[in-house]
Amino acid sequence: MPYGPAPEADNVVKAWINDHGGSFGHFINNEWIKPEGRKTYQTKNPSTGQVLATTIQGEETDVDQAVSASRKAYDSWSKTPGHIRARHLYSIARHIQKHMRLMSVVESMDNGKTFRESRDCDVPIVVRHFYHHAGWAQLMDTEMRGWKSIGVVGAIVPWNFPLMLLTWKLAPALAMGNTVVLKPATYTRLSALLLAEICAEAGLPPGVFNVVTGNGAMGSQLATHPDVDKVAFTGSTEVGQKLRRAVAGTGKKLSLELGGKSPVVVFESADLDSAVEGIVDAIWFNQGQVCSAGSKILVQEPVKDQLIMKLKDRLKHLRVGDSLDKTMDMAAIVDESQKKSIEEYVQHARGEGAEVYQATGCFPESGCFYPPTLITNVQTVSKVVREEIFGPVAVLLPFRTAKEAISLANNTNYGLAGSVWTENIGLALEVSLNIKAGTVWVNCHNLFDAAAGFGGYKESGYGRDGGKEGLFEYTRPSWEERLRPEVGEIDYKTFGSTVQQRPTMGNAPITEIPVDGIKMPGIDRTYKMYYGGAQKRPDAPYSRAIYGADGQVFGHVGEGNRKDVRNAVEVAHNAAPGWGKRAAHNRAQIVYYMAENLEIRRNEFAERICKLTGGKLGEGLEEVDLAIHRLFHWGAYCDKYGGTIQETTLYGATMKIHEPVGVIGMACPDEYPLLGFVSLFAPAVIRGNCVVIVPSEKHPLLALDLYQIFDTSDLPGGVVNILTGDRDHITKYLTEHQDIQSMWYFGSAEGSKFVEYTSAVNVKRTWVSYGYKRNWPDREEGQGEEFLYQSVQCKNIWVPMGDIFAN
Amino acid sequence: MHMTGITTGAVCVYPNRVAECKKALKELQATEIPIASVATGFPTGQVPLKTRIEEIELAVMDGASEIDIVINRQYALQGNWQGVYDEVQRMKVACGDAQMKTIIAAGDLGTMANVYKASMVCMMAGADFIKTSTGKESVNATLPIGLVMVRAIRKYHQMTGFKVGFKPAGGIRSAKDACTWMSLMKEELGDDWLNAQLFRIGASGLLTDIERQIFHHVTGRYAAGYEMPMS
Fold first, then answer.
1. CA of A215: how far to CAs of A25, A259, A298, A479, in Å?
2. Residues A131-157, mean pLDDT to the nearest whole number
3. Strand A253-257's sheet: what is its strand order?
4. Which of A1, A273, A804 is facing B191, going by the closest CB pair?
5. Alpha helices of chain B — where are they, by DSSP H?
6. Does pLDDT of A349 surpass 60?
7. What is the rounded CA–CA span in Å between residue A649 and residue A468?
């Protein structure tokens, strides 16, 4: 008994295209703009190869026009009360619902995805996103106190979920009072243009949301446009890295949602039949063209053969066909070039001797289709295991113990998502917490909701789309104005690579101490660096003279180099797992204890500050007291910022966990040598991070005096590691280190640009000052919520329920 | 419809009416339609085993070729699966040549794990069909319950080679629902299960809607319920 055809009609979409004469321009200021002389791009239906419409390839002047419209609209939109913005977003949600069918059909025709998915997944999520963010606009004044809008957002989105992913940028951006210029992907421009038209119909003021179409170069023009204040990108890691470099040092905010190679971990305690269906959702959803696709199946050995058998059996009746046929499980790949890339990966696996299984219950003779594929007998070194294929191809590897599963799951440059399959809730949670990824689904995969942020760890990017955590990507602290540092070209190869090197002989401080009337030479005090809980001499023992305010040499510190960075990062990583697992109460006790021990030495520290900086004793005492206050502030936050329960549409619990970022490199400012140091390390450390920190280059001694306090306060070795020397030299090696997860830099505008540019290689997070000297004593500038934002990364764990029924 | 040869899968009656039913079918010259009878103290099963066994024997003697039994829910909820197995096996013996459908009364079982276990135990004890419910529980044939049961059937087939049939009962009232259940069978068990030998829907209310949909298919017009003869 076969399935009959169940076609969805395309006539309304065709009528919409015809209304536009089969040809679309940009949508700027709520008007269609079609500049003369532009090249065009014909968008096709991948299922049939039929041409749908013509769109234009924008040029730089088009970007200028859209950005200037957006900038103008920003003046009023950013001042529009939250309640009014909420009404607008609500209206957009309503209008999308009125046009739901049209949008779903357009999306399926332009992208090639099944209508079943565009109707039941993409578009409902879009609607939900606008409703949810209408709420955030309404509540911004109360829930986002201390934060304000950024300005013009340049959004660049991919072709796999054209409408959904643009919404993930647009809704929070508008809710927080920003205006948007969007560049949709080349293959899939129609739904973005339709949405822009619908937003205008819904009454969104002109210029608030603009769409320009064009190639990748135009995307770069948008990103680097001086009047764009924030770049929001979803797409490949490669393009994300390019954007990071392109906007380095400009003071623009950036969020990147990039690729993935997400593990699906199936334990022997899993319900295998459910796991099979989950794997269908994980890797064959949207033809596997999903950044969070569960493309790496890890299965416990006792059930490996059974799972493979069940998967093969399942594949036999997956149906591949026209995107508008409602009985299809899978439809078309977006474009021939993408299909070719998938084919090459699979061919490569065959060449390595892997077993490639492909079978379907129905497969069309023509059109851009690729069969669902399962690859077994592969090794961890295989290209298909390590790289993102972005197609309906899963690899399967066995494991024996949970620990091995975690190692395999994390053996990747990516960290976007993952899923865990077991009926044992304790195991599920433990493994979820150990997978380094932004989303972990328990007994499900690829669920999305506006109330839960989506985004990655490691080379999967930073920033979150959705949830309260996502709002921080579209806001900045209220006190802060965007800086536009004028930094010329930097030679990234030589920046910070050499340090001043000349012997320090002859400028040693001479101290004499009178004892019983006899003058004796003071005992020499050698400041060392501090890492792994011990005082360390520099790898290459050179010294750096530190001068007091009177111009006299006050002491010497070690001149740190890349080997010191290597050693310190190593011990920081050794300490990180244990520190992260410590009870929050215990971390708090340690930080309070630091404050207690610092207060005992209050006068000594104050005098030292004054000697070095030349301030009055009162100022020194004030800085020490503020540092103590700050330790208490962050000590208090040890057990009060662990996360929250997200109110998603899941029947179950979606838990947002504020996880540590990892090992953070830090370069402290020269001003406030004690307070600046404490203000930076404390919030990171209380949230479970370990830090490698360069204290004030000019006045490092205060930080070094603190290591005695760390030791007496029971701070475990490796949690705070102090390297002294040239700020930019050590920064260079910290930023270039592949196993530093974030770099905080409070120094020059040039150094800031260097850090942002260099961070692109492993997509580490950055937080830089652009040369701005913070008012550290100020509560907002010195201990605002942004310190917490920078100290955590959000993981959402989805745990479904559904065991209880009937009686 | 006579020309198409399409008939109901079986006529299902209480044991007391089996003889009467047999007579009626004979008069209608429809003796090929099997008579099914619910037995074993339907719907609760709260009578002594001896009586339940006798009920089966009487129904078979009167001409029932299919017997729908109910499992012992007390045993199931106590985890006494051996007890459930022993009883069902004795019932199977009592059925003789008649086909045995075992009603697991899923709505009374509390967990999906119990639904799965009850399905497995019944198949192991010789069930020809497993059936969701009596139609008298608060929850009857829901898709999640059906999914668990057909997956048990699939597993049992993989382990033993025996094909056991499935019968969702209670709450299936529209032709659209019936199509959904058919696609469940097709997807989970395959085309082999898409016939009356291995798939039945227990729902007396369904027939009218199927007739209405056929009416629509033929005429292009939606029929009123009263235009169809009551079933």
1. 14, 20, 38, 37
2. 98
3. A31-33, A26-28, A209-211, A179-183, A152-156, A230-234, A253-257, A461-462
4. A1
5. 18-27, 49-62, 73-78, 81-95, 112-124, 143-160, 175-188, 206-219
6. yes
7. 16
Q: How far apart are CA A571 and CA A587, in angstroms?
A: 19
Does the beta carbon of B173 lie under 8 angstroms from any beta carbon of chain A? no
Coil, helix or strand at residue A20: coil
Q: How far apart are CA B103 and CA A224, in angstroms?
A: 69
Q: Return the pLDDT at B3.
A: 67
Q: Which of A558, A291, A263 is nearest to A420 (CA)?
A: A263
Instruction: Write the residue in B108, B112, B151 that is nearest to A807 by C-beta.
Output: B108
Task: Give the model confidence (pLDDT) of B33-84 as tens digits.
Answer: 999 999 999 999 999 999 999 999 999 999 999 999 999 999 999 999 999 9
Could you write out the DSSP letters of every residue in A92-123? HHHHHHHTHHHHHHHHHHHH---HHHIIIIIH
Interchain contact B107–A (C-beta under 8 A) = yes
Q: Is A649 exposed, middle or buried (0-12, 13-18, 19+ CB in 10 A)?
A: middle
Does residue A355 carry a catalytic annotation? Answer: no
CB count within 10 Å of CB A9 equals: 10
The amino acid sitting at A593 is: Y
Residue B1 is predicted with a pLDDT of 55
Can you tell me the mean pLDDT for B9-17? 93
Element (H, E) at A27: strand A26-28
For residue B192, give the chain A residue with the closest CA: A1
Residue A744 has pLDDT above 70, yes or no: yes
ipTM over 0.90: yes
Q: What pLDDT is recorded for position B41?
A: 92
Checking if the pLDDT of A506 tops 80, the result is no
Residues of B in contact with A317 (CB under 8 A): 187, 190
Q: What is the mean pLDDT of residues A232-251?
A: 97
pLDDT above 60 for A407: yes
Q: Tokens in use for A248? A: 């380095």
- Identify the pLDDT of residue B229: 84
In chain A, the N- to C-terminal Cα span, in Å, equals: 36
Does B204 have pLDDT greater than 80? no
Nearest 5 degrees, angle CA A314-CA A315-CA A321? Answer: 125
Instruction: Point out the residue among B137, B182, B190 whose CB comes nearest to the CB of A806.
Output: B137
- Mean pLDDT to the nearest integer, A114-138: 98
**Spatial separation of the C-alpha atoms in residues A750 and A488, rounded to whole Å:** 8
Per-residue pLDDT, A623: 97
* Residue in this structure with the two tokens 């070719």, named with its chain if needed: A340
Q: How far apart are the first and last CA of chain B?
A: 15
What values do phi and psi take at B194, rounded to 5? Answer: -95, 50
The percent of residues in chain A predicted with pLDDT above 90, rounded, is: 92
- pLDDT at residue A224 is higher than 80: yes
**Nearest Cα residue in chain B from A361:** B187
Nearest to B206 by CA among B145, B141, B131: B141
- Active-site residue A257, yes or no? yes
Mean of pLDDT over chain A: 96
| HSE-CB for B218 with a 13 A CA cutoff | 8
SS3 content of chain A, % helix, strand, coil (to 5): 45, 20, 40
Q: What is the pLDDT of residue A510?
A: 72
Closest CA to A471 of A450, A457, A487, A492: A450
- Using a cut of 0.90, tell me whether the model's pTM lies above it: yes
Angle CA A319–A325–A329, to nearest 5: 30
Kindly tell me if the per-residue pLDDT of A507 is higher than 70: no
Concatenating the DSSP letter of every residue in B133-164 gives --S-SSS-S-HHHHHHHHHHHHHHHHHH----
- The answer to whether A806 contacts B111, with C-beta atoms less than 8 Å apart, is no
